[in-house]
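Chains adopt folds. We examine one example:
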Amino acid sequence: MNIEKLNKIVLALFSFALIAMILPVVSNAQGKYTNKYSKRDVSNIINKLERSSNDFAREFDRQLDQSSLNGTNEEDRLNNIVRDYEDALDDLRNDFDRNNTWWESRNDVQSVMREARDVNQMMNNLLFARKLESRWKTMRKDLNKLADTYDLPALDGSNNNNNNNTGGGNIPDWAIGTFYGRSPQDGSTITMTINRNGSVNIAFSNGTTASATMNGSRLFNNGAEARISRIQNGIRTTSVTDGQSIDYYRDFNGNNNNNNNNTGNGNVPNWAVGTFQSRNPQTGGTITLTISKNGNVTINMDGNISYASMNGERLFNNGAEARVSKTRNGIRTTSITDGQTIEYTRIN
């Protein structure tokens, strides 16, 4: 046998072996439903999504027009998110009809799910009227069915098409109810009501209100995000952006009774009410602490004003906590974190 003939035989054997290796991969790449669903079956799913997305887009645009976002750049940005999703769905429809098999449209379905994920995040983070929320919940279920058909991840991080977790709610029991906190900017009262379905209502003492959403232990408010953690008498919000914390209580007496709406009594002992002064241990400057009977606390640190709250004998300041005790000439604060103490002398 000459060398040329031997080389041809070896090449043929190698080609057969390569084909044998590739065939199972190609077969598996067709998906688990290729022999179960016809092209018409998958087309029906896409048809349903086209109809529901048109209804959703109209309702979405109507609600934005009736909101405070009407005519703003934010309205344009949100509308573009929905429009990009609709465009991806249109591309899927056009390519799907031209393809020989429904599996050939897998890349187009990936694009649809990528754009739908942005819509899903927006719907989870912002609060809309129930009609629009219901439309999105129904459409998301169909999107997850489409994703499952093409062996793609479903929305909300679930690969299980039977998982009907809509991405909202799932609120821990300890975070449900009405809580009261102090604004770190001006010391005013913030009332926050968290519902089991994830809707959050926020009211400020100046009469303004806001709406937010909560998913698990994350709070989303107009693009801002905060972690929610449990504290003894309520909850603490910690900004993901700058780490600023605000403590909220079920009432300002530190009780866990949600029916007690006494927002003006911090149960502060008489000996702790008044104005006290000390030296700043970091700068050597002056700290002036003014504590009101209702629990409002104003801190003047070297001319910089901040606000805190006091419940009983506990002082809460931007996530930090200190015990307050009586001394002969005033009060002493002791940090819960590191035990550092500061002696204050009463000046009023």
